[in-house]
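Researcher: Let's try something more involved. This one mixes different molecule types, so please make sure each is placed in the same coordinate frame as the others.
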Amino acid sequence: MSSASDPMIGIVDLRKTFTKGKETITIFDGLNLAIPKADFVAVMGPSGSGKTTLLNLLGGIDCCDAGTIEIAGIRIDRLSEGQLAHWRASHVGFVFQFYNLMQMLTAAQNVELPLLLTRLGGKARRERVEAALAVVGLSDRLKHYPKEMSGGQQQRVAIARAIVSDPELLLCDEPTGDLDRRTADEILSILQLLNRDFGKTIVMVTHDPAAAQYARRALHLDKGHFIEKELAA
Amino acid sequence: MNDLLMIRKNLFRRRLRAILMIVSILIAFAIYGVLASFERAFNAGQERATPDRLVVLNKINLSQPLPISYYSRVGAVDGVAQLSPISWLGGYYREPKNFISAFAVYPEDWMKLRDSDFVFSQDARTAFARERTGALVGARMMEKWGWKVGDRIPISSSIYAQKSGARAWDFTIVGSFTPRIPQADTNIMLVGYDYFNETRSFGKDLINWLMLRTTSAAVNERVGNTIDGMFANSPYETTTDSEKAFQKSFAAQLGNVALIVELVVGAAFVTILMIVGNTMVMSVRERTREIGVLKTLGFPGGRILRMVLGESILLALIGGLPGLGVAMLLITQVRGSLMNFVPTLTLYPDIAVGAIGLMILLGFITGLLPALGAMRLRIVTALGRN
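Model: All components are placed in one shared frame. Result:
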């Protein structure tokens, strides 16, 4: 049986570079990180410090040059593109700054998307979609299209889409970056609820110190290395 | 929800653009359906031609006659099993606009020659062979004019007149016949050559061509060479061809329909291919971010490829199937007035099936490049995250 202290994310000696023209830019060189299960970590840092690259690597949508990335016991740095797609579908939920919903689909259809990759039947999928939208408080918006909803509501749909397949890990990239303070607090409360009541491990990239307050701990990324900072009570 | 719903929603996300593309595909397939049906109808004679039938013509061209004496000389050639003289009446019923496809033949010979194409009742066989002024009329012609067996009908000729000066011959319908094979046209009339030949004012003892059946298709070449050699350097030199070649040259008098079809359809399809292909590329490019999101959620590249290809194929089918419907409607509308010229004009099932195959091919070709692009798209590039 797993406990909260079991490692969910383990990064060892990670190296990641980008080539820009003739220049090679090193983002990480020997990065190490361990995040236990059911943790809620805010990753902060200046622009260009590698926050988004870190999320990409953790979500298996980009690959590293060297080092290891282990998530829930799986070495994702060794997986092929097809294996990564399969792994993402069942193990990770993504929440983006600009929601990234399909405009031609309703809220329920957007949330149902990850379930199209499962063997669930139509009825079971509908039940899961309704449950996910209930968690984010949007039971009455099933048939609404994104353009008919506010930014906060769209982000809640995006969160419902991220949790509908019940992944252990949620990766959130500036989830409140496009929202006003009040709406941002609502979204962060939902993430906190998912961490506290549903045991989801959450890694959230943010510039906003107020948003970081909702996490259990904050990591500051600077020049490719982490500095852990205490959060104000 | 399923992939098909997503494909449909993606297709119609820009409604006006989708409708314009559908209309252009619809027009292309309507043109294809009509022209391919015309081409088939023009060439129906070639399709029903049997390999062991030959046609002996004047070497100059189809309009030049041959003497009837050739009938017995050709009949004596080794390898000729059956033959009949055929003369073209240039007939019409009451008014010149009521064109009648009528031929003067040796009744028994002609019916034996065409047994593989038509069904003749025993009564019709006997009566047509016996009655000098009798006419044997195909079922479609009977239906078109509302004739029945026993009717006496005046048939005039735009070429010949009677010795008496009258332009019309009164024939009695002694029987009818039906097609044995779908391509066999029954919008024709046959009358006895002897009666027609004796009563016409000029062209006596001349025919337009001889149709014959050989003992086997293997002897066709030898028989043809023997016949043409027999009449070489005579006032009426001959050329002997297979029935298929004869039908082809007959149809060619109306122009090279096959070439017209190929050029028009080819031009239409290349244009559509470029328009739809370009639009699909634009459409997928507009969705780069969404494709990135789908991949992030775990949709594999192969599935995304199938979805984009499915979209372009669905587009081709949504445009093409109604296009075939329009073609069918147009053909039904003009069939009646063109019955004398292209009697077998219809949208044949194999043309429709071929068109559906073309739609799928069109969809596949236009969707392939954007689909491959979508499949290979890197998530970080699509989401602008690098």
